[in-house]
Hints:
The chain is α+β, with helices and mostly antiparallel strands. It is built from five helices and 13 strands.
Amino acid sequence: xxxxxxxxxxxxxxxxxxxxxxxxxxxxxxxxxxxxxxxxxxxxxxxxxxxxxxxxxxxxxxxxxxxxxxxxxxxxxxxxxxxxxxxxxxxxxxxxxxxxxxxxxxxxxxxxxxxxxxxxxxxxxxxxxxxxxxxxxxxxxxxxxxxxxxxxxxxxxxxxxxxxxxxxxxxxxxxxxxxxxxxxxxxxxxxxxxxxxxxxxxxxxxxxxxxxxxxxxxxxxxxxxxxxxxxxxxxxxxxxxxxxxxxxx
Length: 249
């Protein structure tokens, strides 16, 4: 379990703050509670209204939309750290980078500085990509600040198994809950050496929003109109979730 090896740094989640308020607030607080329990072996005494109050009281917040890192320390103290948000391109290019954390051992918990993940993003950008796809040997594990959803040649919609060390995605899970069609997504090992089996791909994340994945290293992903992800992407676009404008109510 990740809690066995982590230090005493605060657990955190990053929210997108729109003009209407935080997006997917309840889900982010739920993930914070779970992380706090695993790392500190205590129950977090807070609720979404308390966190929203702290966000509303920011003295000089960036112009919306912006991002807010919500930290919870061991003593239960909550700190809100806002920062400006950069809009991602409509489709993004990924560069594979080594997973900057322990492989396996269950879902990754957001805790501490997260510097290694930022460094993975910088390494990807230095290679001309927009973001990093984190791998362990031949296996895709996670994105640097997003979760990749793949449409595979066999018709499955799949994400990497979170037990390999991926962060549980609030954006992906809440989006799938909101759309009208019920979509089955499996968790399974997805290999870089089998990229020719990837027919379409989307990235889901608080900062990136929801974006098509255009390429992984030199491999181009040329999605087709009959891809299972095409209808999903269109509904996401129509609903306003694409840029995170939907208010979590």
